[in-house]
């Protein structure tokens, strides 16, 4: 994430003390260094409630992931129930796409399955009804 | 910048900046809390929360991340398996 200029914050209902011990005893052994982003504590779930990820029944937060742009605007989110982990590559792909669109100042959009160096589309009167000439469905599945 | 704090036995202070709006409900003296709606394309709710980061306890304010791309990730709990 640092490579693509993105800061990360993690949030759970655990205390900052538990975050420290988890970092020290387990996570730092996975990555051979301290966790490289702040681990936030949301012990009463109030932040999770604002973001719609706090589960009252179990008292924990579900796997919500929010992409926020430099203006503080929410560009995308994904929420999973606890047993299934995220696909970080897809998150990175989405961030790169949002960065590309922002970099183009809204002149380009990224079709389904877009990845860096793949074709973007330039919306305009010429393109209306003509996307089929510019882009094929198979491109969504190509690298 | 995040401000470091020395932890005590009380839970560190945390506050939401734009969490909820108190609205008067008609024909009802009670106030009802209405959550701010989270929508793509709209500003996210702001907050400040205590955090652990590289050996220190500190308060993190979401507004400090204006001007940067940010990924905010929630998860069920420390020491769980996934």
Automatic annotation (TrEMBL), chain A:
Residues in the signal sequence: none
Ranges of residues in domain Alkyl hydroperoxide reductase subunit C/ Thiol specific antioxidant: 2-75
Spans traversing the lipid bilayer: none
GO biological process terms on file: cell redox homeostasis; cellular response to stress; hydrogen peroxide catabolic process; response to oxidative stress
Family to which the UniProt record says this protein belongs: Belongs to the peroxiredoxin family. AhpC/Prx1 subfamily.
One Pfam family in the UniProt entry: 1-cysPrx_C
Protein name: Peroxiredoxin (Alkyl hydroperoxide reductase subunit C)
GO cellular-component term (any): cytosol
From TrEMBL, chain B:
Residue numbers spanned by region Disordered: 1-22
Gene Ontology molecular-function annotations: thioredoxin peroxidase activity
Database matches in Pfam families: AhpC-TSA (PF00578)
Protein name: Peroxiredoxin (Alkyl hydroperoxide reductase subunit C)
Alkyl hydroperoxide reductase subunit C/ Thiol specific antioxidant domain location: 40-82
Organism of this sequence: Texcoconibacillus texcoconensis
The keyword Disulfide bond appears for this protein: yes
The protein's Enzyme Commission number: 1.11.1.24
UniProt xrefs under SUPFAM superfamilies: Thioredoxin-like
Top EC category: oxidoreductase
GO annotations of cellular component type: cytosol
């Amino acid at each position: 994430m640092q490579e693509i200029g993105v800061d990360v914050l993690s949030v759970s209902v655990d205390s900052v003390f538990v975050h420290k011990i988890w970092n020290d005893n387990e996570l730092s052994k996975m990555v051979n260094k301290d966790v490289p982003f702040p681990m936030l504590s949301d012990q009463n779930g109030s932040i999770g409630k604002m973001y719609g990820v706090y589960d009252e029944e179990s008292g924990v937060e579900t796997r919500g992931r929010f992409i926020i742009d430099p203006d503080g605007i929410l560009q995308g989110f994904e929420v999973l129930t606890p047993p299934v982990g995220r696909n970080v590559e897809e998150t990175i792909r989405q961030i790169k796409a949002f960065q590309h669109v922002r970099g183009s100042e809204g002149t380009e959009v990224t079709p389904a399955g877009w990845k860096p160096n793949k074709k973007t589309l330039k919306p305009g009167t010429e393109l209306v009804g003509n996307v089929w000439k510019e882009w094929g469905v198979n491109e969504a599945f190509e690298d | 910048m995040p401000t470091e704090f020395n932890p005590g036995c009380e839970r560190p202070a945390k506050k939401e900046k734009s969490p909820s709006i108190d609205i008067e409900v008609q024909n009802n003296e009670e106030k009802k809390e209405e959550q701010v709606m989270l929508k793509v394309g709209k500003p996210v709710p702001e907050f400040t929360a205590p955090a652990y980061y590289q050996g220190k306890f500190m308060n993190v304010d979401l507004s400090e991340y204006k001007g940067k791309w940010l990924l905010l990730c929630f998860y069920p709990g420390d020491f769980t398996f996934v």
